[in-house]
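Service request form, structural biology core

Requester: graduate student, group of Dr. S.
Request type: structure prediction, single chain
Budget code: on file
Notes: please return the result as structure tokens.

Sequence provided:
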Amino acid sequence: MKTEYADDLTLADARALYFETNDFGADGGYGDAWVEFELGPIKMPFPNTPGRVRAVKFHDLHHILTGYETNPVGEFEIAGWELGAGARKMPAAARVINASGFFTGLISSPRKVVAAFLRGRRSRSLYPEDFEPLLRETVAEARARYLDVRSEGRPWADALAMAGWILAGSLAFPLFLVLTLPLAPVGMLLLWLRKARQERAAAPAPSR
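Core staff response, request fulfilled:
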């Protein structure tokens, strides 16, 4: 869902709004054992590993800074942006997911995904930073430090970087499926049980 974040909001407050707007729960789902991962029209359960949790904390802030939505196209765009901005200190789980999303996005929404990758090449990723201090920055301060702060790159260098990630994505996407599909039945059952518990907890108490 597209959300506008006021420049004077701290990233902590903007993240709370982001969680609320997208119905991610008070903690963004960081404490869940399993999460639903959307790869285009495909929804599949994914174990919420410590590596994934560490990555998604930065990933959520990237959504706030860039304005990319959390729908499938927006996730493909943010995958391209994160890869373009640089993979230094990006957790391995994020590299595999981003490469898979980037590769899939080039098939379904190539112009938007390429534009996001090139925008990332002019920007800086949050992954190398200490996380907690970032939450005290305002949206305007963070955007000024990280978005569109690099000069235009040489076209051949951008093309070479993109080709490398396309190759990585072509390998990561089938690897991702091989790793996650066997877990799908267990994950779907656990997600269904969690939703059932949430619905029971939200249901009004029967009158006497």
